[in-house]
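Board notes (copied after class):
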Amino acid sequence: MLLKVDINKFNTLIEINSLINSYNADLHGLLAQILGFATTLCESEASSLMLVNRETRELYFEVATGSKGSEAAKFTVKMGEGIAGWVASHNKSLIVNDVEHDQRHSKKIPDQIGYPSKTMLAVPMRLKDECVGVIELLNKKDGKFFTQDDLEWLEIFANQAALAIRNTQSIEKARVKIDQLQTELSKKQEYHTLIAKSPMILEKLEIINRIAQTDSSVLILGESGVGKELFAEKIHLLSPRNAAPFVRVNCAALPEGLLEDELFGHVKGAFTSAIQDRPGRFEAAGRGTIFLDEIGDLPLALQAKLLRVIQQKTFEKVGSDKTVTVDVRILAATNRDIETLVERGEFRSDLYYRINVLPLYIPPLRQRPEDIPELAGFFLKKYQAETKKHFEGFSNEAMEFMLSYTWPGNVRELENSVERACVIGKEKWIQKEDLFLRSSSSIIEQSGGGGRNLKNALNAFKAHFIQKTLEENKWNQTETAKALDIQRTYLSRLIKDLSIKEP
């Protein structure tokens, strides 16, 4: 029998398919939407979506609608019991327009909740021909009977629900596998190289040497791209916990619906796709360090749970009432003005004070130009190897421009620009044009009337840097030019222009 053409129902199917393909964070919410669509379009008073528990051979209510839905959801149904149990055990659909006199009908639930069933549709949800659940529609509105057309539409909705379950289970299996691989990698993980030449950063490293020996929480502040994660790594590596895992979590990169599960894990059966116990990041970091990047984006609901972990070293997994104890040091970072977030009520003040025991501010790259040549040289070696190209270094114009650029994206932007230059560069030396940086972001050009003072400051830095390098090479200009990756003639001109004199 062909389905009657119904534009509303076809549009609903298109919407459901879109949800299935894009909304994987909350299976319960997705199933509830599918059931809601089916209930409305088939004009029933109430409905339920029940899933099969393979171990107990029972059906449990995942979603139940109607005036008595919340009460019905407390019950379970055995395979073969009632109309839903019959559908699950026989894997067949049913139209029952006289429920009261149907031999398969069980009065247990209707009698206990006081909601009589007059007419019913029940269809199986199938995965590879196996029934994984049942959708029931109760009591066609206005005293009407359910039709074969209703049944066939409901079977389509049931197939969509089964597809949502399959997709979510596949994602969960993939996450479990990824977790296993991450655990293996954490045992032999690699850390970034921290390049430091400026007095500002050398001072921070000296502070890190001291705070690394404690177990106090550290809040690392700074603009995006300054390398806050590298400093967190350094704290871990210098700490007594360095033999244990260092676990990274980007609080802004995970959807709110997944973040609690990601941090604290879940137990089998906590939700539909929870096919096995899964440890969270806190457990994975046992006796080590957990780094919570972008903590300013942590939802308020999770801030209370995190506060408890810091204070009591305990938490519960999703779906469990069993308390888990962990021994983990917490490092946090944010590029947001967290004090303003506290004033607005967007970040708990008690949590802020707990994580801000040892604050560490990382200055932006524009405030520490001494690091630019060192970092640029490091990235050049890295991306020369990756692109299998060779460059002698940066041209004089390129280096001057990098030193005068404001670097709004900080070290990350510098790395990206050097990588880009290695890819597109064609000459022996990296040219200014290869960096693809906007001239309008130059410190001098942005400074307007104050450009003269900033230029003098930049020249002072150059003079100091060159003189120091000359001293390291016993004032041998040839060796100094090699050390600076510039030409000998250009070094001589700089010495003259900057009035550098040997003592």
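Comment from the instructor: The longest strand covers residues 130-140. The chain has a mean pLDDT of 84.
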